TrEMBL record:
Keywords: Signal. This is Tail specific protease domain-containing protein. Residues 1-17 form the signal peptide. PANTHER family: INTERPHOTORECEPTOR RETINOID-BINDING PROTEIN, RETINOL-BINDING PROTEIN 3. Transmembrane segments: none annotated.
Length: 462
């Protein structure tokens, strides 16, 4: 994914007052519904295995890392069913108790190229959520590639075969990561705005990534100079821009749903740390916006992050509890969709007209924010359709040390509609990234939107 934050599983629902189970009640082996996990809980800590029809193998994560995902447990509908989650109100993973870890899960084994192919194939067959929308025949085409895999196939050739197959899904939440990233890399197929940037790079005979960085600088400069006219704020580790785009028209731009804290080498800031960094910024901005006629909430270049951050932002704009969306995992039999409800925020908030701006760059938690905001009666969705990649990323280490990421969850709005692959369509079209003027079109589009929202009495007299 071209998400700024990789591997962030984030979702936060309305907490409910289920009694907490004691730690000792959870000792034993548990199989998840969906997700393909086998979780072993002992007094010494947690262990995780991955299970598919093609076999079982251990996850390299430490007990401390697993506690970040499964550190809270709540009783299920029976004694042998339990929910594990990262914290109160976050994504709930339902597990069933097993008598023991299945045979072979801890048996040392050197996996052949053909066995690795079968693990990848089974992982997608059992968990990938979006074949109907993205590529209904993908598994059949992958099966046709199996004859190319030989027992002695080298890693580079196998990685290339996997990467070519995955790339055809055109899913921002599908990745393949090798331990030696210098020699084996996976590049997703560009789409939409990123295709235009690639064409610009070719025309200028410059590296594509260099052109993308220059475009991003122009995007930020356009906001600060053209939209906010040199009087804006660029804060929260340079991930938030805000100010007034016109008289009584507030402007708030979120580039990510995380990354608000500068992380230390080898350590990713936690969700509480991210929220602690963002909340004072939202307090200051929304306090300044008190009495504004409207607020433009711009996520047209938002690369994703934590769903919990997305909901914390959305709650600043609702006056009443609102069902925002629901989600469920592929293969999670008997598990009802998890419903996420926005609750009115006690910190500074804004309940007037809100115009949320998106583009095809808006992805993942940026789309979740948009999905949640669209449930509010005071919000109008402006821009172009979002990327269409909502699901959390299911991280699956392969037995040879590679890691594959895939989207295994379904997200639906309050009316039950899903927007995976097609993206959320705007209620009011506004082309923010035009190919003929990629460097300045966003700032000009936002400037025009802001000026159109100024009431006549607030406009300067000629």
């Amino acid at each position: 994914m071209l998400l700024v934050l990789a591997g962030l599983l984030a979702a936060c629902a309305t907490p409910h007052a289920a009694p907490k189970a004691s730690a000792s009640d959870a000792y034993g082996v548990w199989r998840s519904r969906g997700y393909g996990w086998l979780l072993t809980v002992t007094p010494e800590g947690l262990r995780l295995h991955h299970e598919t029809a093609a076999g079982c193998h251990p996850d390299p994560a430490s007990s401390a890392e697993l506690v970040e995902m499964f550190g809270v447990q709540e009783p299920g509908p029976s004694a042998d069913v339990r929910d594990f989650l990262a914290g109160p109100g976050e994504t709930r993973y339902r597990f069933d108790r097993l008598a023991a870890l299945p045979a072979g899960c801890d048996t040392p084994h050197v996996w052949s190229a053909l066995e690795l192919f079968d693990v990848l194939r089974a992982t997608f067959a059992e968990h990938y959520a979006s074949f109907p929308q993205r590529d209904p025949d993908w598994l059949a085409r992958l099966d046709a590639q199996r004859s190319r895999v030989t027992p002695g196939m080298d890693g580079r050739a196998l990685f290339t075969l996997f990467a070519d197959a995955l790339r055809s899904l055109n899913d921002a939440h599908v990745e393949l990561v090798a331990g030696d990233a210098d020699t084996l890399t996976y590049e997703p197929r560009p789409t939409g705005t990123f295709v235009m940037l690639e064409h610009a790079a070719v025309a200028m005979a410059r590296p594509a990534r260099e052109v993308q960085r220059e475009w991003m600088r122009a995007y930020r400069d356009g906001i600060l100079q053209t939209v906010l006219r040199g009087e804006g704020h660029h804060v929260a580790n340079q991930r938030v821009l805000w100010g007034f785009a016109a008289p009584r028209i507030g402007y708030l731009n979120l580039l990510t749903m995380g990354g608000f804290v500068a992380g230390e080498e080898g350590r990713t800031p936690t969700l509480p740390q991210e929220l602690a960094a963002l909340e004072p910024v939202l307090d200051e901005a929304l306090t300044a916006f008190a009495g504004a006629d409207a607020v433009i909430l711009d996520v047209s270049n938002n690369r994703g992050g934590y769903d919990a951050v997305a909901r914390a932002v959305a709650e600043r704009f609702t006056a009443h509890p609102r069902r925002a969306y629901s989600k469920w995992a592929t293969g999670a039999k008997g598990v009802p969709p998890q419903v996420f409800t926005l609750q009115p925020s006690s910190p500074p908030s804004f309940h007037g007209p809100v115009y949320v701006v998106t583009s095809d760059v808006t992805v993942s938690a940026g789309e979740v924010l948009t999905l949640a905001l669209r449930a509010l009666p005071n919000v109008v969705h402006v821009g172009t359709a979002t990327r269409g990649a909502f699901s959390d990323m299911l991280v699956k280490p392969l037995p040879n040390g590679w890691t594959v990421h895939l989207s295994n969850e379904h997200y639906a709005d309050a009316q039950g509609q899903e927007y995976e692959a097609r993206g959320l369509p705007p209620q009011r079209p506004l082309d923010v990234f035009k190919g003929e003027d990629m460097w300045h079109s966003h700032a000009r589009a936002i400037r025009a939107l802001a000026d159109s929202l100024v009431p006549p009495e607030a406009k300067p007299t000629p």
